[in-house]
Amino acid sequence: MGFVELLEVASMPIIQVLLISALGALMATQYFDNLLSPDIRKALNKIVFIIFTPSLVFASFAKSVSLEDMISWWFMPVNVGLTFLIGAIIGMIFVKLLKPNLKVEALIIASCSSGNMGNLPIVIIPAICDENGGPFGARDVCRNNALSYASFSMALGGIFIWTYTLHTMKSRCLKHKALEAAEIMKVPNKEFDATAESLLLKDSDSQNTREVPTSTYIGDSENQIAVDQDQSNVSKKSESFWHRIVEVMRHFLAELMSPPAIATFFGFLFGAVEWLRSLLIGENAPLRVIQDTLQLLGNGTIPCITLLLGGNLTQGLKSSSVKPLTLISIIIGRLFLLPLIGLIIVRLAANFGLLPVDPLFQYVLVMQYAMPPAMNISTMAQLFDVGNEECSVILLWTYSAAAIALTAWSTFLLWLLS
């Protein structure tokens, strides 16, 4: 295929996403009577998360994934982990160079490290298979494989996002709130500060006079007090460490028990075990009506996700609280530098025989590096009530730039793998 044909194949799914997202953005405005108001978006998001997405994931896994496929996909969890690790390093470099405040610092690292591993791949990658002349084989086989790859990517990405990214956002947001509280406690009154300082000194002197009446506090008793304080500090640090471990494990287990993750597990199970698979898949399957019903429900996932994407991005139009240099840095790091590193990693893995022969699998692996920041970052910003406006601005501009970047990377990969 020529460059123009490859560009057309790569751009059609992106154009579809843009059109539906634009409709979602309009539905979130007063011109459509706020059909996608924040409350409605929240309710629809729950429906997509609990009903539509698990149905799509289970139906695609049970139909197209076998035990041999699962074993051959071992590199995908490694690849997703590398996207977060390398993205975090890039984000930390930008933080050192830009020196933003803590809430923007958290958003920079999260945006560079946490890509949209679920929603966009489920929309874009299967759509590549629907275009005529695609390089990934027969349409039906390609689409089923693409849905399986994208579903597995979504499950893996969710685990990393709700562990590593959540910890990154939480730690820096709490530090930012602590600093804000400390600033509020400061009173800008020099006379008051001077008076307060003198009173504190006087009170301190009187306490010292009362507390040290004899020499009994000198010697072993002082050492004992110091030892007790050290033990107390060590105990507090130990409790704090174990508390953080428990928090991380709690969020990790919560993500493992989320509806899409559960659907992924059962999809793997029904795809791997032949007699379970025969209950649902095939013209003579006794429970094929369940599979057909799940497929019907799953068909609502992509349009709802894309409408929600457009509605959520409209929040970024109401604020300009992020410096242009910060936005440019995130766009370059997330959409250009990280995919370039990812392409090198995936090609090296393919040359060493670590990947399946299927070129669509390599396409998915590289595209995982090229995805814009995860929409869940906005959820976390709302959860900790820090950086909501800044997060909306970052998502708006990164997703706008992603329309061009994803088309360019997809066209290049189709040419490289065809």
TrEMBL record:
Q: What is its main location?
A: endoplasmic reticulum
Pfam families, per the entry: Mem_trans
* GO CC terms of this entry: endoplasmic reticulum membrane
- Can you say where in the cell this protein is located? Endoplasmic reticulum membrane
What parts of the sequence cross the membrane?
A: 12-32, 44-62, 74-95, 107-128, 148-167, 252-273, 293-313, 325-348, 393-417
Membrane topology designation: Multi-pass membrane protein
Q: Which UniProt keywords apply?
A: Auxin signaling pathway, Endoplasmic reticulum, Membrane, Transmembrane, Transmembrane helix, Transport
The record ties this protein, via InterPro entries, to: Mem_transp_PIN-like, PILS1/3/4/5/7
Write out the GO biological process terms.
auxin-activated signaling pathway; endoplasmic reticulum to cytosol auxin transport
Say which domain of life the source belongs to: Eukaryota
Q: Tell me, in a sentence or two, what this protein's role is.
A: Involved in cellular auxin homeostasis by regulating auxin metabolism. Regulates intracellular auxin accumulation at the endoplasmic reticulum and thus auxin availability for nuclear auxin signaling.
Q: Which family does it belong to?
A: Belongs to the auxin efflux carrier (TC 2.A.69.2) family.
What is the name listed in the Swiss-Prot or TrEMBL entry for this protein? Uncharacterized protein
- Provide the species name: Sphenostylis stenocarpa
